[in-house]
Amino acid sequence: MQQKIWLSLAHMGGQEQQFIQEAFDTNWVVPLGPNVDGFEKDLEGYLGGEKHIIALSSGTAAIHLGLIQLGVQPGDDVICQSLTFSASANPIKYLGANPVFIDSEPDTWNMDPCMLEKAINERIQVTGKKPKAIIPVHLYGMPAKMDEIMEVANRYEIPVLEDAAEALGSKYKGQFCGTFGEFACLSFNGNKIITTSGGGALVCSTQDEADKTKFLATQARDKAPHYQHSEIGYNYRLSNICAGIGRGQMLVLNDHIATRREVNTKYRKFLEKVPGISFQSNPNADFESNMWLTSIIIDPKVAGFNREELRLAMEAQNIETRPLWKPMHLQPIFEKYPFYGNGTSEKLFENGLCLPSHPTLSDDDIKRVVGVIIELSSKN
Ligand SMILES: *Cc1c(COP(=O)(O)O)cnc(C)c1O
To answer: Do 245 and 96 share a structural domain?
Structure first.
């Protein structure tokens, strides 16, 4: 059996252990500490210095604390992209609110701005009140159509919480993903573009929001010498050890993006002539995906094979691939909630596959992956 090719792997730059060693040497083996402060500063600088960033234990925690601050209450509607990881939607339910799912448009595979407006109008008619927040996602690093989404959101005065968990370093019209909404979440889970082994951050627009996030994430402790609480808090801060990994990863973030983009370019070149294969692509120069995961769509009528046949052929060659996220409106736990769509995300799910895409993938690895597709194609 040939060596396993993984879908996505963490890749350490080399400096990570030094930051961790510093934490040990200074006995900052706790949540909070100089690495947490340093990591937040690094992220703030990277995103252009206008935003305030609070490092948290996960991207999911970031969405949760963002929604709390947008005033989401039990029974409220919160609008969420359907084609995404369940972590985008779960925090809506933590708060007892109701998700309203929106289909994707075919250009970026992200939230369809027309469906968004339709959903807002209909939900206002049905419930008599506006949805409390909108959660667009930048899937696999591809920026959503933020101009259109923000225009609708602003017109109805509904705040946006961007799920930029997969899109650190991606840009839309020259502006970083994660800086458009009132809030945005980032994730540093094991397989994301950078990792802290596990972690996330909430991108905030104001100092007050950042202070409140910190407060909520550290058990909502009032200013008093004893432990006093007037609000429900959470234990959501990032540890100083994990933040040390994050500081090291920030030094190689741009390299990681460059290599993921190269991987994407190579796949495209090798698969150019294979019939029935298309890629998730930047629709035009306004969109600059970090190309976190290269994802393809198989048109089975043209290709002669379908997504599952390809996935199994990869598996037989010890290559890990994965279908696109299964849309939330098709998930057993979420299928009873409203969905506004026209079949786009369903088709993407049926025919889409994520290919191995990480910085340590060699040219030979890429050729092995491509070889499986070409062989399947030539048999049909
Ligand atoms: C990874 C991810 C999250 C959640 O991040 P965690 O750090 O794993 O909690 C949220 N949304 C999307 C789209 C993700 O891919």
So the answer is: yes
Ligand 1 lined by 110 (C-beta under 6 Å): no
pLDDT in tens, 107-130: 999 999 999 999 999 999 999 999
Q: Compute φ and ψ for 296, nearest 5 degrees.
A: -120, 160
**8 located within any domain:** no
What is the 197 CA–ligand 1 centroid distance (Å)?
Answer: 13
Query: Could you tell me the CATH number of the domain that includes residue 148?
Result: 3.40.640.10
Q: Which atom of ligand 1 is nearest the CA belonging to 187?
A: 7
**Residue type at 136?**
P
At residue 30, does pLDDT exceed 80? Answer: no
What sign has the CA pseudo-torsion 249, 250, 252, 255?
A: positive
Tens of pLDDT, residue by residue over 201-232, are 999 999 999 999 999 999 999 999 999 999 99
Nearest to 170 by CA among 149, 184, 159: 184
Ligand 1 proximity of 59 Cβ (cutoff 6 Å): yes
User: How far apart are alpha carbons 309 and 318 in whole angstroms?
Assistant: 14
Burial annotation 308-324 (CB, 10 A radius, 16+ → b, else e): eebbebbeebebbbbbb
Measured from the CB, is residue 57 less than 6 Å from ligand 1? Answer: no
Ligand 1 pocket check: which of 54, 58, 60, 202 to mutate, most ligand atoms within 8 Å of Cβ? 60
